[in-house]
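Shape matters. As here.
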Amino acid sequence: MDDMGIFLTDIAIENPAARGLQVTLKGALVDTGSELTWVPSAVLESLGVAREERTEFQMADGAVISRDIGYAIVHAGGRRANDHVVFALPGDTPLLGARSIEGLNLRVDLPNKRFVAAGPLPAMAAA
């Protein structure tokens, strides 16, 4: 999509408190420069995801905005992970953020604009 390694992918969102129903977002932006995953508020509300707190975000242009966040299971790249998600407002771009990508144990293959397995998870060696 551009030279910064951003591309589009399909993701699905699920409420961890009501497993089974998932809503798929087609063409969500994969943005390693964004910390959290942004999902339209209507999608999260339809799944019954609760608003847990309000958080400030600094946009690329320097503006600071506030959005609610909650907890959801994010599905992408054939994997799933529980994470914080932002209740995106109309005009906000739905995107898969760096923290979800890491939680999914994926990394971004920038030249090929795709996900690859990140390999074994780091852990402290047994004493």
In short: The mean pLDDT is 92. The chain is about 10% helix and 50% strand. The beta strands are 7-14, 22-31, 37-40, 53-58, 64-76, 79-88, 95-97, 106-109, 114-117.
